[in-house]
Every structure is written in structure tokens, then in C-alpha cells.
Design goal:
two-stranded antiparallel sheet, mainly alpha, single chain, Dna Ligase, domain 1, 375 residues
Length: 375
């Protein structure tokens, strides 16, 4: 005859099962209160496994990571990056306490399936849950854009209008054409001048809710850290130029050529002309003075007419000697370096080559210059 089960044993088993079930219910409840519901694609067994891990590690998930002493930090999510690699990056950058727990939360919530590539700005002082949620939220993804070398402020403004930031082109131009004195003092910009020339070209990534003031400050910071090196400062002192004059010269050089290797030669031509009190006679300054050409849909009218060359403006270097009052565009680092360290030549003229290369022939005399004309 089979043995009869001990009723006491059965009761103990039943009690243990009830306690275990109650414990699992409690864990699930607590995890849902803290971390939300599991993702719809997560099966119940996996959800329970992840819940236990999150329950045991919730203190780490709720604590604020130490950070790196910065106000905020940018994290780049690559298209081919695994969720484990992303979480490891967050831990390495001191943005979360535990990579494993952060990954567990993302998988538990189903958010690991919907993280989009891009840059995300993580503020300091938030916990791992908030960090993970921010990276999951595509509306929090940074706005990325390019400022091209040789653009003037109005062209940057047009680009801003397409980013969907909290300010538009009109707000931007109002601010940068009459910036607060504190912005001018940072870079010793003369009174009455705009921020033209100080918007350093390059790739940028800004948080979508950035203020206009922070937007401008971030770009000016890039200018200071990239341009104002010890070498540049020494070259500028040797040239006898102020920073504003150097940027003004660089902005003209930038509009005259895209070939970085000939920028020092272009600079030498202009300095040689200044040395003998010869007008710079450079078309880009006239183009800047003329402004927007509605017929050709450009800020840089070309070719210029003889009437254009007579425009009454302090920026017209055909009518006014010396440098114009300020920059006419936002120059690259190569143009800025050429402005403070020009080549040593006897050239007084340059003319576009006829081979379509967009580079120039240089000459010492006007006769040589004329001989380089295209048929």
C-alpha cells in the first residue's frame, strides 16, 4: 500500500508556496511601482526574473551616479551599438551605478527595442532610471547641425529655422547682432560690432531644449577652445593684429578660397597691399555690403557689376582703404591661422585659374595678373 502523506508536511508545503507566491507578488508590485510595467514583448517568466534583479538592485538604480564633475554630458548612441555596449558606456562615464542593472531595466521595460541612434545630453543629478528613460525618449535626442566655413550670420539663422529649437532665426539674429556686453568682453569684441566671425565652423550637437543664450555660449566656447591656443596667440602678437582684426582678415580669406594650402598666399597678397596703402579691392567685402540677392537667392552675389563696386558701405574695400570694420563671414581654423601667419611673398594680385580647380594664380605685377585672364 502507498504511504500516506503527512498532513503536517503538506500544510508546510502549502504555506511555503503561499509565502513564496506572496513574496513574488510583493516583489512584482514594488518593481512596478518603481520601474513601471514590463514591456508587452516580455514574457511572464522573463518579467519575473528581471523583477527579482531590479528589486535587489533598486537602491543602485535610484541613487545618483557620481558623474564627472560636469553640469551635463553627451552620450552618443551608434546605430550598430548593442544595448550592453551602451550600458557599459554609461557606467564607464559614471552616469549610472551599474551597467547590468541599467540593461536589465531597459530590457524589462521593453525600451531596449526602441532606442534611436544619435547624441543625448545627460544632466548630472539624475538616477539610472531617468538616464535610461532619457536615452529611450527620441524627443530628447540632440539636434545636430553643421556651420559651414564662410557662412555669414544670416545663413546660420536660416539653418536654425529648420532645427525646431525653442528660438527661431529672428530671435537668433536679434541676439547676435546686438549681443550683451558680457559676450563681447569674453572675446574683446569692439563696441558696435556683432558676433559675425566668432561662430566657429564645424559639427554641433545641442540638446533640443537649449536656450538661445546657451546655444550662442556653446559655439563661442568652441571658438575659444579651438582657436585661442598658445601658438595662435603668439602668431597673433607677432602679426601686431588684434583678435578682431585677425578674424576680419580671416573672414575675407575664407570667402576668397576654399583651398587651405593657398590661404597663406592670399593673406600675403592682402598684407602686401596694406603695406603700400593699396586698397584691398576684394569682392567678398562688397558682396557682404550688398546683402541678400533675391534674384539669385544668395547672400553672395556673383559676378559683381561695376555699379555694385560703387556701393556706399564701410565694408566696400574698393572705396575704403584698410580692413573693413569687422568680419564678413565665419572663417575656418585654416583661414584664421593664415591671417596671423601669412606666407612671405611679393605678390600683389591673384586670379582664379581657368581650369575649374577653384584655385588661383598669383602675380607680382598687374601685367602678369592680366596675362592670367581666361579666353
Amino acid at each position: 500500500m502507498p504511504k500516506k502523506c503527512n498532513p503536517v508536511f503538506l500544510i508546510l508545503i502549502l504555506l511555503m508556496a503561499i509565502v513564496l507566491a506572496a513574496g513574488l507578488v510583493y516583489v512584482s508590485f514594488e518593481v512596478r511601482e518603481t520601474f513601471g510595467l514590463p514591456g508587452k514583448s516580455v514574457n511572464p517568466i522573463s518579467a519575473l526574473k528581471y523583477s527579482l534583479a531590479l528589486f535587489n538592485g533598486r537602491d543602485k538604480m535610484l541613487s545618483v551616479a557620481p558623474g564627472n564633475g560636469l553640469r551635463e554630458e553627451k552620450v552618443s548612441v551608434e546605430a550598430d551599438q548593442s544595448i550592453q555596449q551602451l550600458c557599459a558606456t554609461l557606467e564607464q562615464r559614471n552616469l549610472v551605478e551599474s551597467a547590468n542593472l541599467t540593461c536589465t531595466y531597459l530590457i524589462y521595460s521593453g525600451k531596449d527595442r526602441n532606442i534611436q541612434p544619435g547624441n543625448y545630453t545627460i544632466p548630472m543629478g539624475i538616477n539610472a532610471i531617468d538616464t535610461a528613460n532619457l536615452i529611450f525618449d527620441v524627443t530628447r535626442r540632440d539636434k545636430q547641425f553643421i556651420i559651414y566655413a564662410g557662412w555669414r550670420l544670416e545663413e546660420i539663422a536660416a539653418m536654425i529655422d529648420g532645427l525646431g529649437l525653442s528660438f527661431d532665426a529672428t530671435d537668433f539674429l536679434t541676439f547676435v547682432t546686438a549681443p550683451p556686453d558680457s559676450y563681447k568682453e569674453q572675446l574683446q569684441i569692439p563696441q558696435g560690432m556683432t558676433l559675425e566671425g566668432y561662430f566657429f565652423p564645424g559639427n554641433y550637437s545641442v540638446k533640443p531644449d537649449i536656450s538661445l543664450q546657451d546655444f550662442v555660449a556653446e559655439i563661442l566656447t568652441r571658438f575659444k577652445t579651438t582657436v585661442l591656443t598658445e601658438e595662435f596667440e603668439k602668431d597673433m602678437q607677432r602679426s601686431g593684429l588684434t583678435l578682431h582684426q585677425a578674424i576680419t582678415m580671416a573672414s575675407i580669406i575664407q570667402r576668397e578660397t576654399l583651398a587651405e594650402e593657398e590661404m597663406p598666399l592670399i593673406a600675403s597678397v592682402f598684407y602686401n597691399r596694406l603695406e603700400i596703402n593699396m586698397p584691398l579691392e576684394t569682392d567678398p567685402t562688397v558682396q557682404f555690403a550688398l546683402g541678400y540677392d533675391a534674384q539669385k537667392n544668395t547672400w553672395w552675389k556673383s559676378p559683381l557689376t561695376f555699379t555694385d563696386l560703387e556701393v556706399n558701405s564701410p565694408y566696400n574695400t574698393y572705396r575704403n582703404p584698410g580692413l573693413p570694420p569687422g568680419p564678413i563671414s565665419n572663417p575656418s581654423l585654416a583661414a584664421l591661422k593664415a591671417a596671423v601667419a601669412p606666407a612671405e611673398t611679393d605678390f600683389l594680385f591673384f586670379r582664379a585659374k581657368c581650369d575649374g580647380s577653384l584655385t588661383h594664380n598669383f602675380s607680382k605685377t598687374y601685367e602678369e595678373h592680366l596675362n592670367f585672364g581666361c579666353d
